[in-house]
Amino acid sequence: MSIRDRVATVLGFNAIPTTILLVLVYAAIFSTVLVTDNLPSVPRDTRGLDLDQAWLDLHQVSILVSSLPIFRSVTLQSKVSARPHPFNSHANDLVHDYIRDRLGDVASQYPHVTIHDDFVSNASWASALLSAKPYAVYYEGNNILVKVEGTDPDFRDSGGFLLSAHFDSVSTAPGTTDDSMGVVTLMQMVEYFAKNRAKRTVIFNINNGEEDGLNGAHAFMEHPWANISDVFLNLEGAAAGGRPAMFRVTTTAPLYSWTGDHVPHPHANVLSAESFSRGVIRSGTDYSVYEQRGLHGLDFAFYRGRSRYHTKYDSIPGMVGGKKALWAMMEGTHGASLALANDDAMHTQPGKQDHPVYFDLFGAALVVFSLETLFVTNVVLLTAGPIVLLLLAYSKHIVRLSKRIRHRHHSHSHTSVNGSQRNETSRERALAVLKKIGTSLWGPVKFWAALVVSVGLQAALIAGYVDLNPFIIHTYPFLVLTSATTLAYLTTVLVLTVPLDKRGVVPAPEQQKLSILSQTYVFTWILLVFSTVLLRKIAIGSTYFVTAWNAVVLLGSIVAYVEGMTSARGFEPEGDTEPESQRHLRGIRYEAVSTDEPTNGRQTPGRIVEDPEPTEITPLVRRERPLPPRPEGEEQGAIGWWILQLLLVVPLPVVLIFHIAILLLGAMNQTLTDGNDPSSLYSLVSILALLIVLPLAPFSIHAHRLLTYIVLVVFVLSTVFTWVAFPFSQETPLKVYFAQTVDLSTSGTGIERVVTALTGPKQFLASHILRELPSASGKPVECYDSLDKVGLRTCSWEVSDDLVPSPGGRKFASSGIEKPWVSSSFLRTGSNTAQISVRGLNTRSCTLQFSNQRISKFRVIGDGEKGLQKGYEVPEKGLEQIRLWSRDFGKEFEVEVEWKDGNTSEQDVNGRISCGWAEYESATIGGGRSGGKIPSLEEIINFLPEWAVVSKSSASLFEARRSFSI
Fold first, then answer.
1. Is the pTM here over 0.90, yes or no?
2. The Vacuolar membrane protease C-terminal domain covers which part of the protein (predicted)?
3. Which residues are marked as active site?
4. DSSP 349
5. What residue segments make up the domains of the chain, in order of their start?
6. Exposed end of the chain (fewer CB within 10 Å): N or C?
7. Distance (Å, whole) CA 67 – CA 808
8. Can you tell me the distance from the alpha carbon of 820 to that of 827, in angstroms, rounded to the nearest whole number?
C-alpha cells in the first residue's frame, strides 16, 4: 500500500475516520459545555471583597445565631437553627437589625456613606398581573437604604446606580439563596464602594417584603433616593444555589457591563428574558418594579435547584455550591457594578429603547448584538444564500457536462463498437434512465423522511414519559435528554442510510453528502424564515442559533460544491463509455456502516460487484471481482474536504443548542411540581435533542455500525430506567403547598371550623402524602383543581381542636377578656362609600375581600393624599381585594373605600375580612417565644415522606376570617 493510499485510509471519507471525528467533536462539545457550566473555583485574589466575612454574614442572616447583638469573630460552631424570617414575623426584625447595624458601622467610618433606616415610606398601588383577582396593596416599608456619594458631583442627584436585594424570606424557608446571598453581596459592595469611591453615586436598596408581592421595591419608589439612579442591578434567588445567571436586561447599554473583563465568568441568555416577558416563567422580581418606573438595568439570579426553593432546604447545608455559589454572585455583581458606576457608556440614553440578543459561550465570553442586527443578517442569508447555491449548482452542472463530453470523445477514439451493439446499448441506456428516475427519488427526500420519522418517534417517547412517569425529569433531567438524543440519532442515521433500491445501490458518498447537506440547508432556511417572522412581529431573538446554523450549512454547501467541481472523484459524470479505471464508481454496493475490510491491500468503502461491461441496469448478484487499480488521486473522497465541511457544519450549532438545553434543563426540570404541563416540557427536550443531532446528518452515511449499537444500548437503558424509576428523592424532593383557614364567629373570638389544605400533583397527593398524615386519616377529604396553582390538585379536610393554630402575642387584655384574633368595625358613609377598620392580633397583615361590589377607589387614613403609584392605577372593572401591610404588629388599619353607585346605593356591601400569620413553633426565635403555633404544619413537617417537603401556598400560612356586611 502506498503512502497516499494509507493517508486516504486514515483521512478519507470512510466509516472509521468519519465516525471517530464525529465522536470527538460531540464529546468535546458536551464535555466542555458541562465542565464550564460548573461553578468556577474561588480565586486567591477576591478583588477587594471579603468572602469570609460575607460567609459569616450569610450565617447570621439566614440562620439567626442566637448570640445577639452582632458578633463578628465567632466561629459559628455554636448550636444554630434555621429560622425563616418572612415580613410577617418577629425574626424579620432581628435580621433587619443585624443588617442595619453592620452597615451602620461602615457608614460611621466614611463621611461619603449615608445609611437610612426607612420607617417613613408607605406605598399604595393596584395590580392584576400576578393574580386572577384584581387587587390593591397598601404597604408600610422598613427598607435599609445606603447612599455612597460618587466623586463626580454631576451624578450625585441624578444618573446614579442602584443595587437591590431583599432580606425577607418566605415562611417555610431560611432564605439562604432567596435572598440572603444577594443581601450579603450588597453588604460587601457597600464596604467596597466606601473604600473605593465610584464616579457615580451608588444607592443600595436592601428591602423587605419582596416575597409577598414586591412590596419593598414599591416602597423604595416613594423615597427621594429613588430619583437618583437611572440604571440598576437586582440580585435575586429563584432556586437553591448553583451557578447564577443574568436573567433579564432592559436595554443593551447596561448589558455591556457583563462583557469583556468586567465579569470573568458571564452566564446569560436572552431566552430567559423572553420566557419572563412571554409569561412562560410565571414569577416576578423587583426588576419589574424598577423597569416600570423607567430605570434600565439587569436581573441577576440563582435558578437551579427549584425543588428546594421556598422550603427548609433553602439553607446553608442545603444550598448547591456553598462558598463557590456565593462567590459566583459576588464576582458577577462586583464586575458589573464597577462598570455601571463608572462607565457612561453603560447608561442608556434617554428615549433609546433597543432590545439586545445575547448569550454566553462556555462561561468565558458574552456575545451581544441588537435585534436589528439579527434581522438584517437573517434577511441577507435568506436572499443571498439561495442565489449563491443556485449559481454553484449551475457551475457544477457545466463542469460535469464538459467532463462528460471529454469522456465520450475519449471513448469513441479508443473503442470499436458495431451497429448491433450500439443499438443494444441504446436500449439498455433508455431502460437505465427510466430505472434511474424511479430509484433516484429517494435521495432528495430521505432527509425529510428521517425528519418525519424522528418527529413521530419523539412524539411516541413524549407520550411514554407523560403516561408512565411524567415527573422523572425532576430528578433525572440529563437521562431524559440522553434518551431523546439517542433516539434522534438512531432514527436519523438509520433512515438516511436506507439504500436506494432493493439491491442496495447508492451514489458515491460525496454525492449523498451534498444531497443531504442541500436538504439540511433548505430545512434551516425554512426555520430562518419562521424565526425572522417571530423576530419582526414579536421581537423574539432567542432563535439566534437558527441564524448561525443556516450560515454554517451555507458555508458547508459552498465547500461541497467547490469539492465537486475540483477534485472529488465521486462527482464524475456517469456514462457508458467511461474508462475501465472509473467504472467501479457506478458499481459500488455502498454500506452505510462499513466494516472497512481491506481488498487487494487497500481500504474500500464497500463490496464491488462488476460485469465485464457494466451498465445502469446490470444486476448486482454476480460474482465479486477484485477492483482494478485506482489511478493516482482516486481515493475515497478527496482528503480534507469532508473534514473541513464537518468542522464548518457541526460544532457551532451543536454548541449553541446544547448551551440552551443545559440552561433550560437547569431552570425548568423541577417546575412540574409548580403545575407546568409535562407535555410542553418533554416536547421542548425532544426538540432540543433533535436539533442537537441534525447537524451531523450529512455525515451520518458513514456512521459505523458499532457506534449505532452503542447508541442503541444507551437509548434502551436510559429510557427503561427513566420510565420505571421513582421521580423524587431527598436531594430533589417533591414540593407540596400548605395553607390553613380558620373561620371565626361574628365576635372574632370563637372558632367555628379549621380547615387544612395541601396542594400538589394529584398522582402523589392522595396516594402518597395524605395517607401519612394522622389528621387526615379517616376524615372526609375534599379534592379539587387548585384555584391558584394551575395544573395542581388541592385536598382539604377539617381538623380537630388539638390542631387549631394560635396567632401568639398577648392573648388577654388587662380586663381578663380574651382579645379577638381579628377585630373590625364598619361604617357606611354614603351611598357608595364606607369606612372599614381592621386589626389583627400579633400580625402585620390583613385583607379586605369584596364579593358583590368592585372597589373603584380606596385610601388608608393617615397616609396622606399621595394616591396610587403611577402606572399602577385601579383597573376599569375595579378591585375585589385590598391587601394591607403594616410595619408594626397589631396595627389598626382604617380604610376608606368607594365603589361605583349605579343602582346599588341601597344594597348591602358584602365581603370577608381576614388577617394572616406566618410563625410556627419550630421556626420562630427562641423555640416559639413569639407564641405563634401551627400544629397542622408541624404534623406535615414530621410525617411527610423523606422525598417530599412543604412550602407555603400564599403569603400567610394560616388566616383567620369572618364575613361582613355593610
1. no
2. 734-958
3. 210
4. P
5. 3-18+376-405+439-500+508-567+637-724, 83-120+142-346
6. N
7. 24
8. 20
